[in-house]
Amino acid sequence: MNYIALKMLFGDRAKYLMLLCGLTFAVMLIVQQGSIFWGLMIWSQSSISNINVPIWVTDSGIAQVDEVKPIAGTAVDRVRSVPGVEWAVPLFKGLLRARLSNGEYHQITLAGLESSSLIGRPAEVLEGRFEDILQPDAVALDQWAVERMGGPDVIKIGTIFELNDKLARVVAIAKTQKSFTNIPVVYTTYERAIRYVPRERRTLSYVLAKPKDGVPIEEVTKRIHEQTGLGAFTAEEFGWKTIGWVLKNTGIGINFGTTILLGFIVGMAISGQTFYLFTVENLRQFGALKAMGASTFTLARMILLQAFTVGLTGYGVGIGLATVFGYLTARGGGLPFVETWQLLLLVLVGLLAICTFSALISIVKLARLEPAIVFR
Amino acid sequence: MDDHTEPAAVRARNIVKSFGTGDTKVTVLNGINLDIYLGEMLLLVGESGGGKTTLLSAIAGILDIDDGDIDVLGVPLSELPAGKRTTFRGQTMGFVYQQFNLLPTLTAAENVAVPLLIQKIGRPEALRRARAMLERVGLSDRAEFLPKNLSGGQQQRVAIARALVNEPRLLICDEPTAALDGPNGQKIMEILRDVGRSPSRSVIVVTHDSRIFHFGDRMAHLTDGRIVSIEPISREGTA
């Protein structure tokens, strides 16, 4: 009977294609919007992933990574003294304006790394040597700075610009994950960073730390919090905290959620209606099958097979199209697009719900169908 | 009722069936008694609205009756639960409809194979038997045609092949010639007579078409929900 079900489905080409298009569109919309949403969330915590250390310590009331709440400079030593901490280094993070030689101003994020270890440096350097930031007035930029501040003709190795009337010379260009705000990042040493910024009583933004091997990271963050009174977070916790802040304080969650919900509803409406029409138009045929001895259970199985066949085909095509879209638009980091297996699994579950709903409407109709219809 | 010596394939007693309630209640079958014997073709005739199709549906077990008993091949239909009745119908009955009711996206052979597939017979075997049956109704060269590419007469022959492919003991035909012209109607009845009839099978045909009366063995007249006469048919076509 599976064979008959599939022949009935594929044979009515117009309806099959309409169903397929509806489900493909729904899947594509959900996957595309879901991937962009998740890409934005990844971007929102790129300050954490770019620094790439296990533990972040700062004011316990911090809401998200880009909201700097300076802490006392003694915090570094206090964290170092916590049992289970292998190392702890300071990090300066703050917003500043860069003035280029052509007179243009650009807002930048200044990151000051501990000079002896350069912990927190980007993993990949595109041009120059990152270690050269130890030279006088030397800074490194991320590749987005090149893009935002005038392109490779304006910003290159050797370019000199001003930060708060002090010279900064580009010695390296590093590759980093784009940030949510896409503000260029200028890397220098911690000591030089606090010379660049206007004088403040507290200049330490974060203490970056690592647990000793064999000591659970959660245990170490707990000890840091208990012994220093500061907020200590694993990189993952801090990432989720940041995502939570973005969702709560921006319209991103609601906007994307609405679009995804619309995709779900449109998919359900189109496939449900088309499938119901498909069943209604074949009612006499289904009645004939019932008269010939096909049970309601058999017909229900046929309907479910049809629904899941077209659903899974639409799932594959929809994901394929969304992936091509992502590949074309997100190349080079232009658009946030992160297609995760969790999202694909979620969409699959949603799609199966749509297919089950569509099939159920038809099955209810068939269950109530009197085979005597064939004699009318 | 009749002095037949053959066993009754269908034995209907005091069948009552009404539709609607209260003022709108219409009694369509009003105390029907009918025996249909193995080896015979019974024509069920009468005016429109007389209850022919309702009786056919009741005998087929696809319509519940309000009162009375129907035994088909010795099995009391009304005592069978719905699921078993469906299985029983699939195993013992074949249907030919006025509108053919072929699945439009299946080829002629696949349509004929449907009752076998319902009985869970493997597809290759079902198609082999379907093609053999199509050969018996003279359509072996149309086995791979879709219904839309067949004439009305050919579609009805496919429907007959489908009704007979699982060797049913009871063949139920509802106006099998109504959608066909005269010559095609005659041809369909010839096929029903030649291929459908056998000593171990009963054929019930509901019809209005007086041109095909001579194909039957007996004719039952149904008027206002009652059988007013059951008479043998002479080969000249008159009862």
Keywords:
heterodimer; A: 376 residues; alpha+beta; 52% helix; 18% strand; B: 239 residues; alpha/beta; Rossmann fold; 4-stranded antiparallel beta sheet; 6 helices; 10 strands
Describe this structure in words.
The complex is a heterodimer of chains A (376) and B (239). Chain A has 376 residues and is an alpha+beta fold. Chain A folds into 2 domains: 2-43 and 251-375, no CATH class; 72-229, no CATH class. Chain A is built from 12 helices and 10 strands. In chain A, helix 1 packs across helix 11 (296-330), helix 2 runs antiparallel to helix 9 (252-281) and helix 2 runs antiparallel to helix 12 (341-367). Chain A is elongated, with a radius of gyration of 29 Å. The two termini of chain A are 25 Å apart. Chain B has 239 residues and is an alpha/beta fold. Chain B has one domain: Rossmann fold. Chain B contains 6 helices and 10 strands. Chain B has helices at 52-60, 82-92, 108-118, 123-136, 152-164, 182-196, and strands at 8-19, 26-37, 41-46, 67-72, 75-76, 93-96, 170-174, 202-206, 218-223, 226-232. Chain B has a 6-stranded mixed β-sheet, sandwiched between helices. In chain B, helix 5 runs parallel beside helix 6. The mean pLDDT of chain B is 86. The interface between A and B is medium-sized, with 27 and 30 residues.
